[in-house]
Amino acid sequence: MSIEQLTRAVDLLANQVGHWTPARWRDQGDQVHKLVQRLADQAADLAGAPRRDVPRLSDLALPDQLKVVAADLAAAAPPPELTTAAAEEIAALRHTLT
């Protein structure tokens, strides 16, 4: 799977959750934050950098945080199997959240 496909999956999820109400974020925001953290950890591992906790700035910031960590992951030149796994995880979360 290509970086473009990963980026597309991220965009679809960010657009899906970007209009959520505060109640919806309370119910399902943790799932999005956990995904952001996993992607950040993968990017750090590939870059040879230490893993760091992604702060939960606010629920409304999570779609932007998702895009940033996905861009970091793409910049780290992930192998195709990691790109595929990340895109599949994002797609699975999208379907879970519908």
Write a concise synopsis of the structure shown.
With 98 residues, the chain is mainly alpha-helical.
Proportion of β residues? under 5%
- Helix percentage range: over 70%
Order of helices and strands: HHHH
| Structural class based on helices, strands and sheet pairing | mainly alpha
Strand runs, count: 0
| Backbone CA Rg | 13 Å
* Major β-sheet profile: none
Into how many domains do the coordinates divide? 1
Instruction: Tell me the span between the first and last alpha carbons.
Output: 24 Å
Count of DSSP-assigned helices: 4
Globally, the shape reads globular
* Average of per-residue pLDDT values: 95
> Can you tell me the residue ranges where pLDDT is under 50 for at least 5 consecutive residues?
none
Explained architecture:
- It contains four helices and no strands.
- The chain is mainly alpha-helical.
- It has one domain.
- The radius of gyration is 13 Å and the shape is globular.
- The mean pLDDT is 95.
Show the helix and strand layout.
Blueprint: H1 3-17, H2 22-47, H3 62-75, H4 80-97
Helix pairs in contact: 1-3, 1-4, 2-3, 2-4
Tags for this model:
mainly alpha
